[in-house]
Amino acid sequence: MLLTFLYKFARHEYVGISAAWDRTEPLTESTSLVAKIGLYHLCEEFGHMRLFQEILRTFHLDPVEWVPLGKWMSRMYRLFPMFPEAMLAPPAFVSELMGLTVYQHIDGVLDDILADEPEARERVRALLREVMTDELAHVGQRRNFLGPLGLRAAHLMVESMYRAFFRDIPETRLLFNVEQMVRDGKAFDYGTIAPEMLEKSWVPSYCKVSS
Ligand SMILES: [Fe+2]
Ligand SMILES: [Fe+2]
User: Fold this and answer.
1) CA separation (Å) from 163 to 151, 158, 169, 173?
2) If you measure from the C-alpha of residue 147 to the centroid of ligand 1, how many angstroms do you get, rounded to a whole number?
3) How far, in Å, is the centroid of ligand 2 from the Cα of 96?
4) Which helix (H) or strand (E) is 91 found in, with range?
5) pLDDT at 210
6) How many angstroms is it from 53 CA to the middle of ligand 1?
7) Ligand in closest contact with the CA of 9
8) DSSP 13-60
9) Where are the domains of the chain?
10) CA dihedral 129, 130, 133, 139 (to 10 degrees)
């Protein structure tokens, strides 16, 4: 069930990033630094697909195919990148945050679900933490493009976006505590992230707590 969930979650990512990639302008001499960062960010997301594939391969699920989503979902992902940046920034931030929440919760159930498969558990955990390190940086990067209004909008969107998304993946409520996921999303704080991960990732300077 955990692998089914992971597959479905990763498939959403794949469809979302493929749609964003299709709308991305190629790099030129005059590409702005911000657009370049956005492109690298997207490339990292494609790198995650390799890591997900590797997780599935750990369980001998080699020939996994990323089957397209249903008509409406695919359409939504195609429409999404067409909105102006100001409208896109809050939901884009929330979707990065949701990724981070999901990976934290997967990490939290690994010991239990893979108790009798210690090697697989450690391998999955190592791969997952690679993905989380990037997602943590993406949360910070997206945070940079939210003004006070965008931040308020994002905060209001967390609950409905999380619930709508998880409703589409019925395995979620059987594996995880959805209420806790919503609470974690709303109360996100860098203080909850392990220092080793913060060290490898990137956090906006204004979000760092000086000690
Ligand atoms: Fe991602
Ligand atoms: Fe991301």
Assistant:
1) 19, 8, 10, 10
2) 23
3) 5
4) helix 85-113
5) 59
6) 14
7) 1
8) HHHHHHHHHHTPPPP-TT--HHHHHHHHHHHHHHHHHHHHHHHHHHTT
9) 2-203
10) -100
How far is ligand 1, taken at its centre, from the CA of residue 135, in Å? 6
Q: Is the Cβ–Cβ distance between 79 and 19 less than 8 Å?
A: no
pLDDT 10s digits, 131-145? 999 999 999 999 988
Distance CA 143, CA 189 (A): 12
Q: How far apart are the CA of 133 and the centre of ligand 2, in A?
A: 10
Q: Which two tokens stand for residue 64?
A: 């996994």
Tell me which residues have their CB within 5 A of the ion that is ligand 2.
Answer: 96, 135, 138
C-alpha 208/C-alpha 211 separation (Å) is 9
As a whole number of angstroms, the distance between CA 94 and CA 100 comes to 10
pTM for the whole structure: 0.90
Q: Ligand 1 centroid to 9 CA: how many Å? A: 10
Dump the DSSP string for 121-168.
HHHHHHHHHHHHHHHHHHHHHHHTT--HHHHHHHHHHHHHHHHHHHHT
